[in-house]
Specification:
Blueprint lengths: L7 H20 L3 H13 L10 H15 L3 H13 L5 H17 L3 H21 L4 H17 L3 H17 L6 H18 L22 H4 L32 H32 L24 E3 L14 E3 L1 H56 L1
Antiparallel strand pairs: 1-2
Helix pairs in contact: 1-2, 1-3, 2-3, 3-4, 3-5, 4-5, 5-6, 5-7, 6-7, 7-8, 8-9
InterPro entries: IQ_motif_EF-hand-BS, TPR-like_helical_dom_sf, TPR_rpt
Pfam family, one: IQ
Length: 387
């Protein structure tokens, strides 16, 4: 049957079937067939009312398709288009908000991701009050909201939403997200303990430990253990005399210069007296200033045997006729060089194959995007012609 002859009810049945099959193919990684079915479903949307729930469902599934292929800009466009069509099903709207939150989070726009997560959480809370079977969706929304608060370093709010999701999971016996949320909450508590301030931030030592209110009689004082810590020693500043006669030095007063000269002259006089006494002592004892001779110890190292290199000759050379000096070749070194060149050739070949596959995949994606843009242009022209 031709698309022009379809009634709205028939078109809606075909669109819903295409959407179901496309999602099944997307989960099994058959991207091309999934995209073809979604494209057909999008073409048939003109046959039904714009207020129909199949409009947001189709665009939401297209957003999930582009999100799987990591085309985040196109995915965001499809999700926003899905939200433009108002839908009576609140759970579907909340799911689209959660998908948008994940897109913003991947692009590190955590404030926008948090706004969408909070919107989804508030919608799903209303749904949960009327339908307790939707607890899993609310638990997931609480987990996503906590994650975004954690990314924005608002630890208390993140802990609050994690705890709320954990309580809901225990009340409804939901094991899907219980372990994931409990692990995130424990890691968050460890972070908070690690970033908390120490009790005593000062580096100064305390003079003595705090004492307990006990009986201070002379008999019992001997049984009280008291640790007396040493106080920090003050810094001592040494005023050494400067070296005189330097080209760049500060200008000193005459009184200071005279005092330094006096100290230097006293030191020189003491040195001279010590030299005189040392000479007298050597004359009395009969010792002289002879240089001390030290004989170094001889270490007997083991002899390393000499290994002759392998001799190689050029082709057509006869050593018996012309015994010239042959060329010495290190076989190990040559083997290493050959192996290095072979590895380089092998890695370059693998790199070329990977690049070729990546180029083919990108070309397929570009073709799919081009087809999608053609459809959008055609639809916009049709809508302008109807106006």
């Amino acid at each position: 049957m031709d698309n022009k002859e379809l009634t709205p009810s028939q078109a809606s049945i075909i669109i819903s079937d295409h959407n179901k099959q496309a999602i099944e193919l997307l989960t099994s990684k058959n991207y091309q067939q999934s995209f073809n079915l979604l494209k057909k479903a999008q073409d048939l949307l003109n046959k039904i009312d714009q207020r129909d729930r199949l409009y947001p469902i189709t665009y939401n599934n297209l957003g999930c398709f582009y999100k799987t292929l990591k085309k985040f800009d196109l995915a965001q466009l499809m999700f926003e288009k899905s939200l433009e069509h108002k839908n009576s099903e609140k759970s579907l709207t909340a799911g689209t908000h959660l998908n948008l939150s994940s897109i913003f989070s991947m692009n590190k726009l955590h404030s926008k991701a948090l706004n969408n997560a909070l919107t989804a959480f508030s919608i799903l809370q209303e749904v949960y009050e009327g339908d307790p079977n939707s607890a899993d969706s609310l638990i997931f929304a609480a987990f996503v909201t906590g994650k975004e608060y954690e990314a924005l370093k608002e630890i208390k709010q993140a802990e609050k939403y994690y705890q709320h999701g954990l309580d809901l999971a225990t009340d409804n016996n939901s094991t899907d997200y219980y372990e994931k949320i409990s692990n995130a909450l424990s890691l968050l508590k460890k972070k908070r303990i690690g970033t908390s301030k120490a009790r005593y931030e000062s580096n100064m030592r305390r003079a003595e430990l705090p004492t307990i209110n006990t009986d201070r009689s002379e008999f019992k004082k001997q049984y009280i253990v008291k640790d007396d810590y040493k106080k920090a020693t003050p810094r001592v500043y040494h005023n050494y005399p400067p070296i005189l006669g330097l080209p760049y030095q500060r200008n000193l007063t005459t009184a200071v210069q005279n005092s330094h000269k006096k100290t230097n002259s006293n030191i020189n006089q003491i040195k001279k007296e010590l030299l005189v006494y040392e000479k007298k002592l050597k004359k009395i004892t009969g010792t002289r200033n002879e240089p001390v001779t030290r004989t170094p110890k001889r270490i007997n190292l083991p002899k390393i045997p000499y290994i002759k290199p392998i001799k190689a000759y050029s082709p057509g050379y006869d050593p018996s006729v012309n015994p010239a000096s042959p060329v010495s070749v290190d076989v190990n070194r040559m083997a290493i060089i050959i192996q290095k060149h072979w590895r380089g050739y092998r890695d370059r070949k693998a790199c070329r194959q990977r690049r070729r596959k990546l180029a083919q995949f990108r070309a397929q994606e570009a073709i799919a995007e081009l087809e999608m843009l053609k459809v959008l242009i055609k639809k916009s022209k049709d809508s302008e012609g109807q106006l």
